[in-house]
Task: inverse folding
């Protein structure tokens, strides 16, 4: 997925994770907890490497064709920096999402999760509606503006994006079962 959608996904995943674990409040008693570790671990093992792959091989598409290589010819030389910056921003989004996921456990009457999920859904729908051509068609910058791009789902990058979404769904579905094996008294990792 392009960086802007991956950033939203990184923010939303811990919130959905907290929603999935709402019947286990003892897991959120401390900031450093199993939900945080599993959420950041998933971020580090799945979302960040896929985004780094996109920046390395399809940086024009990943940035939404917003950077013209004719005006900024040095963009290709800084791909490692872009990938590092993306990893830091994705981690920051995941930590912010985790902090939002913790709010209802500290203030039970709070609607923070619902508001954050609703806002993320609205922003995602708007971005997909506005940037649908940039999202679903992949190629180099010149190919995009020349109308010679390929449909995303027919490329390895598109298949990798589908795998990423399936991995997110599997994580949200199966990971709570793994946390059920952790005894209640081990929720504090400090």
Result:
């Amino acid at each position: 997925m392009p960086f802007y959608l991956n950033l939203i996904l990184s923010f939303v995943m811990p919130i959905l994770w907290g929603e999935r674990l709402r019947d286990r409040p003892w897991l959120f008693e401390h900031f450093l907890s199993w939900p945080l570790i599993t959420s950041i671990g998933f971020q580090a093992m799945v979302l960040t490497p896929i985004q780094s792959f996109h920046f390395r091989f399809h940086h024009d598409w990943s940035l939404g064709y917003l950077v013209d290589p004719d005006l900024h010819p040095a963009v290709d030389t800084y791909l490692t920096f872009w990938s590092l910056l993306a990893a830091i921003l994705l981690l920051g989004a995941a930590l912010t999402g985790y902090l939002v996921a913790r709010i209802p456990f500290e203030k039970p009457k709070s609607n923070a999760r619902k508001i954050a999920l609703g806002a993320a859904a609205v922003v995602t729908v708007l971005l997909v509606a506005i940037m649908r051509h940039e999202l679903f068609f992949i190629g180099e910058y010149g190919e995009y503006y020349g109308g010679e791009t390929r449909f995303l789902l027919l490329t390895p990058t598109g298949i990798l994006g589908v795998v990423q979404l399936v991995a997110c769904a599997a994580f949200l579905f199966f990971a709570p079962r793994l946390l059920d094996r952790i005894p209640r008294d081990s929720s504090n990792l400090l």
